[in-house]
Design brief:
Layout: E1 2-5, E2 16-19, E3 29-38, H1 41-49, E4 61-69, E5 81-85, E6 94-98, E7 102-104, H2 111-116, H3 120-131, E8 138-142, H4 147-158, E9 162-167, H5 170-175, E10 183-186, H6 192-200, E11 205-210, H7 215-221, E12 224-232, H8 245-250, E13 254-257, H9 268-282, E14 290-295, H10 299-306, E15 314-318
Parallel strand pairs: 8-9, 8-11, 9-10, 11-12, 12-13, 14-15
Antiparallel strand pairs: 1-2, 3-4, 3-6, 3-15, 4-5, 5-7
Length: 319
């Protein structure tokens, strides 16, 4: 079968489509014929910084059709459409995935949209679960135009929160108003935190959702009200940001790390959230905008597009 790998970390040009052996499954796994792949930020981080093991292919998120079922697996059937997650193996014609990382796709839902839901919207929903967002509260979303950010805007708005989002492009943030964004903060000459304090008249944010990391995390923490919470999702802007421990202590700030993938194997509520999001998407209550779609043999072009600044929507690969 065809799969995407790379000989060493680097830019999109390192990606290669090669022939590999079709995966076998364990008693707890499903074998899925991949139809659509969502290009995730984690894919780009992995390609830039991590080596693949022999026989591994790139990719987190894909949707397709079940071809085989492990002997211990219940609740699925051959021929069923599922969205799947794993740390490797999405960019291939077939993938073996633990059953607890597979989610039924409702009838009529585009396979591309289904592929995107577990990682982006799923992470946003889990962040709000961890941060215990309540109606009437104010949430600040750093990087609101990204895959997680756009879902977070929609979900927070549906929950009755005031939604403030940051980004580098005014036009992208303006488009997010139709998804529920109340206030747009353009990051540039002024730091986001300073602009948020001017908007709200002080430190009045209840919950921070940070999809960026780096200096943006420290800046965002300092607009939280006393007793507020910050949920860290992304580290694209830096892995080793210093956080003022005294500030956290004095202002009773809770800092939470959010990594959804491991939770599916341990917590039913994490799986239930993704299943609910699938239903919402099928009903048109959750929108995953499509920026562009490429065939598997155009994977280099797909990653180049995914790294293009200013786009609004997901990049997909079809098999």
């Amino acid at each position: 079968m065809k799969a995407v790998t790379y000989p060493q970390p680097g830019g999109p040009e390192v990606l290669q489509l090669v022939d590999v052996v079709e995966p076998s499954i364990t008693q707890d796994e499903l074998l899925v014929a991949v139809e659509a792949i969502s290009v995730e930020g984690g894919d780009i981080i992995s390609r830039n910084s991590q080596y693949l093991q022999a026989g591994e292919s790139l990719g987190y998120a894909a949707a397709g059709t079940i071809l085989a079922i492990g002997s211990n697996v219940t609740g699925f059937k051959i021929g069923q459409k599922v969205a799947t997650f794993n740390w490797r193996g999405a960019y291939a014609e077939r993938r073996a995935v633990a059953a607890y990382n597979c989610f039924p796709v409702p009838d009529g839902l585009d396979a591309r949209i289904a592929a995107a839901i577990p990682v982006g919207p799923g992470t946003a929903a889990w962040a709000f679960h961890l941060g215990q967002l309540q109606p009437g509260q104010t949430v600040l979303i750093l990087g609101a135009a990204g895959g997680v950010g756009m879902a977070a805007v929609q979900l927070a708005s549906r929950m009755g929160a005031r939604v403030i989002g940051t980004g580098t492009r005014p036009e992208s943030l303006e488009k997010l108003r139709e998804f529920g964004l109340n206030d747009a903060i353009v990051v540039g000459d002024k730091q986001a935190g300073e602009q948020v304090r001017e908007l709200l008249g002080g430190n009045k944010v209840d919950l921070l959702i940070d999809t960026i990391g780096g200096a943006a995390l420290s800046d965002g923490i300092e607009v939280l009200k006393d007793g507020g919470s910050a949920v860290l999702i992304g580290i694209l802007a830096g892995r080793n940001q210093m956080v003022d421990a005294e500030y956290l202590l004095l202002h009773r700030i809770t800092l939470i790390g959010c990594l959804l993938g491991p939770e599916w194997g341990e917590k039913q509520i994490a799986r239930d959230l993704v299943n609910e999001l699938m239903v919402m998407a099928a009903k048109g209550e959750l929108i995953v905008p499509i920026d562009s779609t490429f065939p598997l043999e155009k994977v280099v072009e797909a990653h180049q597009r995914a790294e293009t600044r200013g786009r609004l929507g997901r990049v997909f690969i079809t098999v």
